[in-house]
Amino acid sequence: MEEKMAFQHTSVLLHETVDGLNIRPDGIYVDATLGGGGHAFQVCSRLDSKGRFIGIDQDAAAIEAASARLSVFGEKVTIIRSNYCDMKARLQEIGIDKVDGIMIDLGVSSYQLDTADRGFSYRMDAPLDMRMDQRQTMTAKDIVNTYSEMELFHVIRDYGEDRFAKNIAKHIVAERQKSPIETTGQLVEIIRQSIPMKVQKTTGHPAKRTFQAIRIELNRELDVLKDTLDDMIDLLNPGGRLCVITFHSLEDRIVKSNFRRNENPCTCPSDFPVCVCGKVSKGRVVTRKPILPGEEELEVNSRSKSAKLRIFERA
């Protein structure tokens, strides 16, 4: 029998994020994407007996790993299996209306990538799955085999930012007419055939962008982020902070523009002498430019290279 793999995940921008929360020892803090509990452990270490920590994740393996890791902190930790888009409701269920800090790490965990049968990785042959929450019925296989050519093109172009999206979508549809596309290996081979060899030699793994695109579409990652940032800012007490770690330009753009709008929501024309729209700033952007991993971190964790941290502080 295959030995169960431990939930491994190297926390990206660990100290920068935890420092960025500006932790009060008696405060209430939320990790919206708990993972293996790396960031969480550091936050809990800074809380006193009055402090509280709530960890949210939709992945059963993450919940199990983090529960074990954080067990030393006893009663101050509450772990909830849920998507962070339901954070407000989940917190209200346990009697919490306001918190002092929220962090969110939008990366796929090393565990999810390295566990072949989860189907996230283009480096291992496995069933096409890619579900963050395995209670969900729809999988990557459904997207690949049922989306129209135009829908696939839009997903790969918009979420993968792949300039060969049209060709990849066309090849997927042609191949699935022969027989259903069941595995990551099959999909990788189709993508390889869709991208000129001279391009493949210079741009890393040819399937990277398409796999990212399908994962984002399946788990509704950008929609969830877009729909939840305002709620998270509203949950913060004055002086409370929201720390968001993104891993590609689409996520970063959403966070950057949301923070900017919450800092300066005025919609009056620029030539108006005074504001009449009545929209009030919710706080300030702490990070004018995103915080990036340092040389040392990049050396030990190659997956951190595209990470960016942005921080917002509630007024």
TrEMBL record:
It catalyses: cytidine(1402) in 16S rRNA + S-adenosyl-L-methionine = N(4)-methylcytidine(1402) in 16S rRNA + S-adenosyl-L-homocysteine + H(+). Gene3D superfamilies: Putative methyltransferase TM0872, insert domain (1.10.150.170), Vaccinia Virus protein VP39 (3.40.50.150). GO terms for molecular function: rRNA (cytosine-N4-)-methyltransferase activity. InterPro entries: RsmH (IPR002903), SAM-dep_MeTrfase_MraW_recog (IPR023397), SAM-dependent_MTases_sf (IPR029063). Its EC number is 2.1.1.199. It is an enzyme of class 2 (transferase). It is found in: Cytoplasm. The keyword Cell wall biogenesis/degradation does not apply. Keywords: Cytoplasm, Methyltransferase, rRNA processing, S-adenosyl-L-methionine, Transferase. One of its GO terms (biological process) is rRNA base methylation. S-adenosyl-L-methionine binds at residues 37-39, 57, 84, 105, 112. GO terms for cellular component: cytoplasm. Its main location: cytoplasm. It comes from the Bacteria. HAMAP family: 16SrRNA_methyltr_H. Belongs to the methyltransferase superfamily. RsmH family. Specifically methylates the N4 position of cytidine in position 1402 (C1402) of 16S rRNA. This is Ribosomal RNA small subunit methyltransferase H. It comes from Mediterraneibacter butyricigenes. The gene is rsmH_1.
